[in-house]
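Late entry, evening session. Most of the bench is empty. Finally got around to the prediction I had been postponing all week. Sequence below, unchanged from the version circulated by S.P.
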Amino acid sequence: MRRFALPLLLAPALFAGCATPKTGGTLADLHHVDPDLKDATVEQGLDQAMLAYRKFLEETPVSAMTPEAMRRLADLQVEKQFGIRPGAGLPQPVAFPLAAETPAATPAGASLPAGPAAPHENQLDFEKRASAGSALPESGDANAPIAGLPAGTDPKGPLEAIALYEKLLEEYPAYQNSDQVLYQMARAYDEIGKTEKAMGIMDRLIAANPMSPHLDEVQFRRGEYFFTRRKFRDAENAYAAVTKLGSGSPFYELALYKLGWTFYKQDLYDEALQQYMALIDSKVASGYDFDQRHEEEDERRVADTFRVISLSFSNLGGPDAIRDYFAKAGERPYEDRVYTNLGDHYLEKLRYDDAAKTFNAFVALHPFHRQAPAFSMRVVDTFTKGGFPKLVLESKRDFASRYGVQADYWKHNKVEEAPEVLAYLKSDLKEFGMLPSPMPPYQGRLTPQEMADLLTYLLTLKG
């Protein structure tokens, strides 16, 4: 169907707005004139366009252009009142709001081996913030006076638009762009605070246009509506409808995240983990580098996801649950970050033994991983913070045994690529004053052979 040519109606005004008096000069002079990059405002542009559409509808016989003109007029009313153009989308959901008192997130696990990040919001505050959405606001009676309009807004505008949309659908039930009409109508109801009306229109859109390009957005908004009202089964169905559309939808990762929270709120931690891991898998597949800086919202999304993964595994039994999960689901390149975050979760709660077990569990499963020494360092640090001197000594000896230059670890990793490991060993030896008396005291940085000799001596000492 040929569309009504709105740009032709506005063209004269645009040219008039751009015209300037002729002042003379040559083309060469233009090289010394700064370009004017300001947006040009066309006064009364929307009003003139709406007047033209009304005139068309009043004076032109009914034709194939009539429903299109009706929709365009209604769209212009919505744009005039709320500044929303067709195709701009419903108000975007803020699925990962930042806590005001929380500093910007850093990539999960990036702090290894220095220890957990600075104190931040407690678990209750985290769950409240991280699972919050921007669902359609609560509203009272669907027929109550309009209360959601911005100051100075003419209530006749959105009401006229809604009436036009309804008339169009009633008189032209086979209109091919009916999903766009329903979409805009839901948006108009949303803007004026008619929540239940907006939800009803969304339901109509889904039923009448199951292949609509707006389906993912509408289903996500429905999920937000149900989630904030604790109707988790309804929210689950809505979010799942989005995830089934695949990663091509801009709402895919948001829906995975909120679907995970929907299961989490029902204590279905295994099901929740499937969604969270799918989200992290999606980030990895897109080339996301956890060790690089990203936009604050994106980093917060990843950090929050890893944190709720930790809460889920903690509820399922801790590091043993992580081991069992990846044994069934397959290994992931970010497993070290999962263990790191769970260990940090336990440290935040001063559960030092559980934290150390978590760090040790990773080393036991992945003894030759590049980050294995960092986890062993975290064990020492954990017992130090907990005030367990005997366990500190034992964990330091275990570190020396695992990462001495003659250890099997270096058959899989290069000594020169891990100077922090040798530096840590040297620090321990200096702290204990464990220099073998038959050997002359070393000055400065120890060579790998000198380190091996010292480690041999260290491992013969009695506790």
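Two things to note before I forget:
The chain is about 60% helix and 0% strand.
Residues 296-316 form the longest helix (21 residues).
Will write this up properly tomorrow.
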